[in-house]
C-alpha cells in the first residue's frame, strides 16, 4: 500500500526537486535530522515517548525529535540526555546496566555505554541501504533491485523495534521488512535480507526473543518466527488479517496484540492461536506481563485492560493521565509506568491488585 | 448716561448711546447683522440635524489596528487566504439539567437550534458544522483501510439504540474537544460567516445578527439548555449595542452639567442659552461626520462628550462678565458685545491649546486615534463659532436674569469691602504661596511623583484581561468565552505567522522542517499552549496512514508522503496555489509579555532562516494583530507624550514669555500624567489604543487651568504685587472658572465608567482622573512652584514699564480672568 504511494508520486517529487534547484544556492537549510543534536527542552518528558526500558536501576525513555530522558527515581523525575540526532526514536534496549541501543526513524541506531548518559550514532538509513546493496550483490540475491531502490530512496524509513540479545548481539527491525543485526556490539552491522524476503517487505512492528527463537509481528496479519541469526524467517499461522503492534511472552505462552482490540495467545510457539476477549474496539498498542502473572494491555484511547485469569476476562482500569500509550514497564513498587503520546503516566499498584 | 467702569468698558444703559461702529470688524459684522446670523445658524442647525440622522454607529475592527505596520500589511495582503482566521461563531448548546447530550430531547433541541441558526442571514451554510450537519463525520481504521459516515446515523429517531450508535460515532469522529465537550454536557454549532452577502452584496450587519442570536438564546432558555455564543461577530454586535447605551450617558451628562451650570449662574435663561449653543455645536459636529464619511465608533463617540464639556465650560466663562455688566445696568446687547470683545481672542487661545492636544494624536498610526484627533479638532473649530460668536449673539437677545446679575455683582463688590473675609478654601490655597507650606507641598508632590514613577515601571502594554478585552470581564460574552475555553480545546488568543514560498512548493520537506523548528522553539515559551501547522498534520497523517501506530510520529523525510498528507490536510493551513502556509500559535493569554516573546522568537528565526524558498512573516490572528498594535502603541506613547508636552510648553512660553511661568505650568501636569500611569498599574489597565489618547487629551485640556491662573498672577506680579496678592487675584477672577471647568469636564466623561464597553469605562475613569487631578495640582502646585520661581524680584526690571502700561489700562480689578490671557497674548504679539 505504501509502496504504491511512493512510486505514483515519485515524478511529482522529482519535479519539485528540480524546481528547487536554481534557488538552492541562496537557501538557508536546517542541518539534517540525522546530524542535528536534539534540542534540550523541558517539554521532552511531556512530548511523545515511544519506548521505555531499564538500565540497571535507571529508567531510559526515548521519543520524538530525538528525545532521550532518564530517571533515577523510578519515574518520579526525568532529565534529558544529549542525543546526537533529532529524528523520532522508536525503541530502546539495554544489554546490561551500561550498554544499550536506541533505534528510530531514518534508520538511526544510537549506542550508549554509560547507562544512557551519552549516545553516539552507529548506523543510519543511507549506510544501511549501501550495506544491503553490497550484501545482495555479494550473495547474488534476487533482492538486489530492492536494495538499489533503498539506496535511491535514501534514509527515509524507520526502525520500529530493537532487541538486545545477550552480551554483544543486537537486532533492529522496522518498516518494509527492514532488519539489521550486529554481533560485535555495534562495531559492524549486517542487513537481514532474509527478513526482507520473509515478510515480503511489510512493516515489522515488534520483535521478541524467547530462548534461541525470535518472534516477529507486523502489519497485515504478519506473524513470523526465526532463528536467532535471522537466516530463515518463517511465516506463522495467521489468526487475524489486521496488524499487530506488540508481542509479549515467555517459554510457556506467546501473546500478540494489535488493531481494533485484537489480542491472541499461543501456547505452542505460535502454531495455534486463541483470541482474547478484550472488550474494546480501540487498537491495543502496549502490553506487559506483571510478575504475579497478571496481564495488562493498553489501548489507543489510553484505557488499560487488566486480566488476572490468564486472559479469560478483562477489566478496565484508568491511568493517572490517560492518553494513547506505546509501552508499559512494571516498576518495583508494583505500579506500571506507561509512556506514549503525552509523555509519562502510571497505573497505580492499587488498581493493579 | 455713560459710567466708566473699572475695566475700561463703559456701562451704557441706553442702546442709543452706544456706538454701533465700535469694536473690530468681526464684532460689527456679527452683531450689526445678528438677525441674519441667527437665521443662518437656525438653517445650518436644521441642515446638520438632518445630516446627523445619517450618522452610522459601527465598530470597525480594521480601524483599531495600525494599518501601516508591517505585520498588518502582511495580514491585509493575505487576508483572503487566511481561512482559519475567518469570521466564525461558536454556539455551545449546554445541558442545564442532569444527564448527557445523548438524549432524545437534547438532540431534538439541538436540531431546532441548528435549523434556526442555519437560516440566519450571513451564515456560510455549506460550511456550518454541528452534530446534525453532514460535514460532521466519523472515521475509523479497519483491517481493510478507512471506514466512515455521518455522525448522526441514517434514520435517527432518538431511540436508545440510535443514541448508542451516535455515542460510538462521536467517539470515532475526532470531534471530542472540538464540537463535543469531553464531559458530554454540551456540543457546539460552528457557524462560519460571510462578511459580504453574495446575493445582495451587502456587508454583514453585526448588530442584526447579534440581536437574532440573542432572540434564539432567550427562546431556548426554558427548554433545558443554555447557549454560549462567542466569535468576532458577537463581540462586534455587543460593542454596537454598547454604543447605543452610551447615548443615554450623553443625556445624563447634559442633565448633570445643567444642574452645575444652574448652581453656578443661578439663572435659567443663561443656563439654557449656554446648553443650547453648545448642543448646537454638537449637532453640527454630528452633522459634519456623514458629510466627511466618518462613522461613530466606540472611540470617536468620546468626541461629542469632550466637545460638549469644553463648550459648556467656555460658555460659563462668558456668563461671568456679561452678568457683571448687566448687573451694573449695561444694556444686554452692549453687554454681549463687550463679552465678545473681551473673550474672543482669549477663547481662541484656550481652544487652540485644546486643539494642540488633539492634533498631536494624529502622529499615532492607528486610524481610530487619527479619527478621534480629526473629529475632535473639527468639534473644537465648530465651538469657536457656536460658543464664541453665536452664544454672545443669543445673549444679546435673551439677556440674563436681573436677580442673578445683581447677585453676581454683589459678590464681586464684596471683595472690595474692607471687612471682606476670604473664604476658608481661598485662605487654604493662599497658604501655598508661603515658603514653608510650599516646600512641604512640593516635597509631597515629589514623593508622589517618585512613587508614581516606580509604579509606572510596571505599566503593561496591551490588554491584560482574558477573553474579549473590549467587553467587561463579567459580561455575558466573556462568561460564554470562559465556558467554551474551559470545556473545549479552543483558545481565544491565536497568533498566526505565515510562510511565503514559491508557488506549489509550500509543503517542501525543507520548508516544513523550518516550520517545525520554529513551532518547537515557540512551544518552549511559557505563554504558548500549542501550535498547529501542515507540518504537524503531516506527522499525524503519517501515524494515521500507518494504522494509528504512534511510532510513526515523524515528519516524513520523503516528499511524496508529505504531499499525500497535504491532500488530507484542512484547507486553512495552506492556500489553493500552495504558496502560503499559515501556522497557528495558541496562547494562554494576550499579555504584552507573551506576545513580545512570540514576536521576538519568530523575528530571530527569520533573521537566521528566511530565504527564497521560505519567507516567514508575521502576523495574523487576534494575538498577531494585537502584538502589532502593542508595538505601535508603545512607540506612539513616548512620541505622543513628548509631542504634547513640547507643544504645550511652546504655547505656555508664547503666552507667558517666561520660562519660569512655563515650568510652573508644566510640572504639575507632569505629576498628573505620572499619577495617571500609576493609577493604570493599580487598576490593572494596560497601555492600549483606548488609553493611549488619555494622556494627550488630559494634558492638552489640563493646561487650560494653569493658563488661567498664571496669566492673572503674572499680570499682577508685573505690576509689583507680591505673590500672595497675585495668587489671591488669580483665585478671585479665575478660581470659579477653574473649578467649574474641572467639574464640568470630569462630569462630562465620568458617566462613561458605567459603559458596558470595558475600554470606554477605562477611558472615562482615566479622563475624569486627569481632568480633576489637573485642576487640583494647578490650584496647589502652581502657587507652590511660583513661591520659588515667580517672586516679584524676578520682574523688578520690567516693573516701571509694566506700571506705566497698567496705569494706561487703569485698574484691572474687575477684569474678567480670561481677559488677562487676552492681555498677555496681546503683549506677546505686539
Could you characterize the architecture of this molecule?
The complex is a heterodimer of chains A (353) and B (830). Chain A is of the alpha+beta class. Chain A has a domain at 41-201: Neuraminidase, CATH 2.120.10.30. Chain A has helices spanning 2-8, 10-20, 125-139, 144-153, 193-198, 349-352; strands spanning 49-55, 58-63, 68-71, 79-81, 89-94, 100-104, 109-112, 120-123, 159-165, 169-174, 179-182, 190-191, 204-210, 213-218, 223-227, 233-235, 244-249, 254-258, 263-266, 274-275, 284-289, 295-299, 303-307, 315-318, 325-330, 336-340, 343-347. A 4-stranded antiparallel β-sheet of chain A has the order 1-2-3-4, with no helix packed on it. Chain A has a 4-stranded antiparallel β-sheet with strand order 5-6-7-8. In chain A, helix 3 (125-139) runs antiparallel to helix 4. Chain A is globular and about 55 Å long. Residues 1-25 of chain A have low confidence and may be disordered. The radius of gyration of chain B is 33 Å and the shape is elongated. Chain B has a 4-stranded antiparallel β-sheet. Mean pLDDT of chain B is 83; it is low at 1-6 and 810-830. Helix content of chain B is 61%, strand content 8%. The longest helix of chain B is centred in the C-terminal third of the chain and has 36 residues, at 621-656. Chain B has helices at 25-32, 34-52, 70-78, 104-118, 160-173, 206-220, 232-265, 268-291, 302-328, 332-360, 367-398, 402-414, 424-430, 435-456, 476-487, 509-523, 534-545, 559-567, 592-609, 621-656, 659-682, 692-718, 723-750, 758-789, 796-808, 817-829, and strands at residues 2-3, 11-12, 88-95, 137-142, 145-150, 186-192, 225-230, 494-500, 528-532, 580-587, 615-620. Chain B folds into 4 domains: 1-54 and 252-416, Multidrug efflux transporter AcrB transmembrane fold, CATH 1.20.1640.10; 88-230, no CATH class; 425-457 and 658-830, Up-down Bundle (Multidrug efflux transporter AcrB transmembrane fold); 493-628, no CATH class. Chain B has 830 residues and is of the alpha+beta class.
